[in-house]
Queue: 2 jobs
Job 1
Amino acid sequence: MSDQVSAGAVTREDRGDVAVLVIDHPPVNALSQAVRADLIRHVLELGADPAIACAVIAGRGRAFIAGADIREFGKPPFAPLTYEAAFIIEASHKPVVAAIHGVALGGGCEIALACHARVVTPDARLGLPEVTLGILPGGGGTFRLPRAIDPLVAIEMIGSGHHARADEALRLGLVDAIATGDVIEEAMAMARALVGQPLRRLSSAPAREIDDARARELVAAIEKKARGQMSPGEAARAVYDNLRAPLADAQAREREAASRLVYTEQAAALRHVFFAEREAARIPLIEGVAARKVETVGVAGCGTMGAGIAVALVDAGYAVIVVERDEQSAAAGAERIAALHDRAVASGRLDEETRRARMARMAFATDKAAFAPCDLVIEAVFDDLEVKQALFRDVSAIVRDDCILATNTSYLDPNAIASAARDPARVVGMHFFSPANIMRLLEVVHANRTSSDVLATAVAVGRKLGKLPILAGGCEGFIGNRILAAYRRQCEYMLEEGATPREVDEAMESLGLPMGPFAVADLSGLDIAWARRKRLAPTRDPRERYVAIPDTLCEMGRLGRKTNAGWYRYVDGRRADDPVVRDIIDAAAHAREFPRHRFSAAEIQLRIIAAMANEGARILDEGMALRASDIDLVYINGYGWPRWLGGPMFQADRIGLRAILDEARAMEARDGHGWTPSPLLVRMAERGETFGGARDGVRP
Ligand code: 3HC
């Protein structure tokens, strides 16, 4: 017999003497204020109800509870909070058992830990991923989890945000049983069995003894690995400190840290990225459009990029046909692929048997005719228009009429490449980032005539590769490299105006980038950009401000780290300032007659963010990106921006678009041509808007 007692965010359904509390807050049962309040009310009511002996908490729909409602973060907290709900559940004198399906994350896992036992479905996942949002568990996780499982594992889990699958959770002792049938029925049985027994309340249970030195080493390692992100270290330390602390102190420590971290810039940035990633999945142009079936993929060219693409494809389950121009290049390509797999085997990510199975799906050829059975061919040949056009012309004559041709060009006009194909509607850009088997970003480039199902297929293949596909328009440099050019240009301008490469690098490193722009340029080599500048020289607008310093460095054979000299001098791999570079910069600046001054780190950061945001705004204005948050994701997943910085457009919002506009206007006054503030930036700044708020106003 079942008896429905009330409706709301949480429904109570009495099944005999068991009250089943079902959370019903779509889409993922986030622990909103209404859910917290309802849970508390029900637990107090059932405690006083003589007809009820015990209770089960379960979730309706996709998940048990996906955690606190992230949309409430950064706003004043609404009582009751998760930790209060957890204490009330734990204090119940009637057994309460969690019946978990889908996910129990963050506050959801904390509610489960407050229950007296936990039963899960075989596909359930549990974890405390708060650190990935820049915070730490605030519902008792820092002191309950290390009392449920090995405290060292708890430090690691909370410090990394790792999700444990059901079998791992059972092994760790995080859950009590994996259901073989209906999870609610089995949780009810467990609850009944607990009636009259001493209840396990984790907050007052003793923690297992640990090796203190190892725990401290672990906390230090987590702090180091976080590379500037605060939350992992703080969370790991809180778990460690709470191991032996009285409950009241542990609770106070957790609350203090949770309520402080949630208001930090890092937490705001990480929340922005969380929602940006979900938003990026929405590409209106292809909504409801079916992707074509892709099983066999051709890769033309097996240099560094082609090899990375081929490995990404074969690892994701595709059959791959690699074509190189001759036997020698094909052998070199096969070696590159083997080396990438060697690395995966050495690091334990791949076992020999899987590797053999993958290689059995890969074929090498020197004749493009081998592409005949392909559903998709991705070219990764030399970035030269004629070479790529010739390839697409040839491949068009070989492949089936429904085969998609994708170009991996980084700078060339995809429309010009597409024009060489028999059917330009089947041509799309798939711009991978090196190393292509590792980097998560994939710019999917919409050429003028790309058909929507071809676009949908490129996106679907990208997702199957585990990449984050971001739609870009077919402009010079697409999203990422176009903004990169504006970024680099601005950095070079500042050299002519008085900054040093080290000052610029250190300013960006202090903002949070792993490496400043000049150090990065030295690492990747100055010659590629030099070749490009030479290629573009004949069409360059003569009014454009052009900084010749990098050309001078290249002419001197200073190509970066590989020649032990570039923007810096390298001694034993360490960068050192070089008076030669200083003299080159001085001479260039003198010739320009720019007023020179000392730059503060803040001024450098402002100019760079303004330049990037201004270019980003142009990209949006031209419809080359769907939304500002996509631009941020490009920088985070393709250009080494840490997630906790939120990306350049987010940074511009934080500085304020009015200040960015003022800086863009100052750039225009200084530099003349090429720095006109984007009309979108002007409009938004004048209306007091932010890029975050402009999402819906941007056309695809
Ligand atoms: N709060 C608010 N909205 C949430 C949410 C949350 N915790 N989790 C997911 N959503 C929303 C998403 O924004 C998305 O909304 P949309 O459809 O409007 O874009 C919708 O739910 C579905 O999410 P996904 O697209 O991500 O669906 P998936 O099925 O791919 O993934 C998930 C589901 C595994 C639950 C994933 O969304 C996720 O990892 N969510 C975040 C989990 C998390 O970090 N929880 C911890 C929060 S912090 C906390 O609990 C503090 C505590 O200590 C007090």
Job 2
Amino acid sequence: MTARIPPGPRLLLERLAEAGYEAHLVGGCVRDLLRGAEPQDWDICTSALPQQTRACFANFPLLETGIRHGTVAVGVDGVFYEITTYRRDGPYSDGRRPDAVSFVPDLTQDLARRDFTINAMALDLDGALHDPFGGRADLAAGVVRCVGEPERRFQEDGLRLLRALRFSACLDFAIHPATAAAIARTLPMLDRVAAERIQTELRKLIVGPRRAQVLREFPQVLCRFWPQLEPLVGLEQHNPHHCYGGWEHTLHALAAAPAEEVICLAVLLHDIGKPPCKTTDEAGIDHFYGHPAVSAQLADQMLRALKFDNATRERVVALVERHDAPIHPTEKSVRRWLGRLGEEAFFQLLEVKRCDCLGQDPRLSEERLAATRALKDLARQVIAQGQCFSLKDLAVNGRDVLAAGVPAGPQVGRALAELLDQVVAGTLPNDKAALLQALPHLPIDP
Ligand code: ATP
Ligand code: MG
């Protein structure tokens, strides 16, 4: 197992040991090495105080932004590794970082501050494993369990509730019963956690293989920071297309999604606007007219609240808004959609639609699934044939249009848009001479 430790961290561990300090790999990388997965990052903990670590690596590039919390990042071959002094954390009153940390002399105390047993192990270069809380056994059994008394650990830092769900979703592990019970009792702790920290964990949770089961078991954790979810969790839908309530439908759809962040978020939020749009007709059938637009509005609000970046938020909102839009299975209509959304978003939309079908009554969704598959084939064909659906595919550009006598200014853009429109519609061929010939007849005057 130690053979898989790369040269960078190896060198750092050796240097610290040569200088007379204890040093170990710790946390996520040890867990991942033990379960045979590729570690994301290589964290080191040491008995050396931050100044001593710094002195040890005087000739290396150093990042000292975390030094007050005991962390020095050392660069080896362009990669920075975090080396943290054994420490105990004070309270996290700002929900971001502990108010104060105190350095402690021994490894076991450092491991005791860590969240879950599977994350509280340290490994040495010679293969010795330090595992005072039974992390290895929990890893083998597939269990997420708090180090120490769960309720107290969640009271210290509310983010740990969400981290428990994240590790359960990503590792496909069960949450230990006492840890699960403590989650239910400490939900208000999430109110104090910074939005950015919640976002980071949620992004990982949502693509984890066990996400749907975890959300089925713990919807109240997400509802705590996203109260807009709550009505969906209780939504009944008496409608021939649906054999599930709103939440169960969402979870079935989510389980079918590829592990791609924007698709998973869009699927999670696609029906969030259903509850306020619900009406029931005389026959007792529920309808949700206009729900995609309401879903999009709520999704926008929810992603803003967690401070998601604009690109992710806008893409998710666009997918949610169009999840129910009819797309005609013709080349012309597919060209229009490809032009409007771009290739990537269009294929993502087809995925969202596919997942939506898979969350419905299987006897009724087959036809809609086949339609989605046909659209995907059609779009692939339109692209493979080099058909024109965006300005960059058009046989003329701004310079051509100017040279043909269109005056500089907004008319150039309007002329190109009009030509593209006609090419996409099939009323003009994508041919330079033909397009320039059509130019004088276009309605582009201001
Ligand atoms: P990943 O592989 O996704 O990075 P990780 O276990 O490395 O998972 P990090 O968030 O990178 O998770 O944290 C590194 C280690 O720090 C964890 O393994 C855990 O030991 C400890 N840790 C992180 N966050 C907390 C927390 N909120 N409370 C207690 N310990 C924590
Ligand atoms: Mg990590």
